[in-house]
Amino acid sequence: MKKEFYLEKTHNLEKKILLYQIYKTIFIEKLSKENFLKYINLSYIESFLFYNEHKVSIGIGIFSTVENEVEIVNFGIKESFRKQGFGYYILKNIIEIYKNNNKENIFLEVSTQNTYAINLYVKLGFKILNVREGYYKKNHGKKEDAYIMKKKTISS
Ligand SMILES: CC(C)(COP(=O)(O)OP(=O)(O)OC[C@H]1O[C@@H](n2cnc3c(N)ncnc32)[C@H](O)[C@@H]1OP(=O)(O)O)[C@@H](O)C(=O)NCCC(=O)NCCS
């Protein structure tokens, strides 16, 4: 079922702090608040808050945009809102926005162990380009491999 949602680009500090609070609940590898704010303030970084139909915040997305390429830096839905179609419809919508802004390629890196995310990206048309070995540092110093995935927004 298609979900109703809202995207908000984060511009002011209050929203960026909310973004950080949600980021901390979703991702294992965490930047400090200071480094996180420094990063999302970079000129080529675009960050979004996602809301459901009741205007409740449900997730975040951080994208790096350079020339005609986009990299998905972080994309996540809060745990209690997962498996309801939000991830799929929201990312599909964001890809459409970038396509309309003439971004031709979208890249991402995802742990080879992150089956849910890989399934989501494959469903959205991403293809595995290659494997980066020992890229994801996990607890106890254990490393995980990552897939580099790519989607062309404009078919040739
Ligand atoms: C990956 C993530 C964004 C998916 O969001 P979501 O809103 O739960 O996803 P959706 O409900 O829209 O599901 C879309 C597709 O993703 C895949 N998927 C999502 N959850 C899954 C699960 N528990 N098991 C298997 N596949 C799953 C499926 O292909 C699904 O399509 P389907 O319902 O037709 O099977 C979410 O699990 C998440 O935030 N994870 C933590 C952060 C993360 O790993 N982000 C990605 C790396 S940056």
Features of the shown structure:
156 residues, alpha+beta, 7-stranded mixed β-sheet, binds coenzyme A
Could you provide a short overview of the structure?
The chain contains four helices and seven strands; from the N terminus they run βααβββαβαββ.
Q: Any overview of this molecule?
A:
This protein has 156 residues and is an alpha+beta fold. It has one domain: Gcn5-related N-acetyltransferase (GNAT) (Aminopeptidase, 3-Layer(aba) Sandwich). Helices cover 29% and strands 38% of the residues. It contains four helices and seven strands, in the order E-H-H-E-E-E-H-E-H-E-E. The protein has a seven-stranded mixed beta sheet, sandwiched between helices. Helix 3 links the parallel strand 4 and strand 5. The longest helix is centred in the middle third of the chain and has 15 residues. The radius of gyration is 15 Å and the shape is globular. The two termini are 30 Å apart. Coenzyme A binds next to strand 4, helix 3 and helix 4.
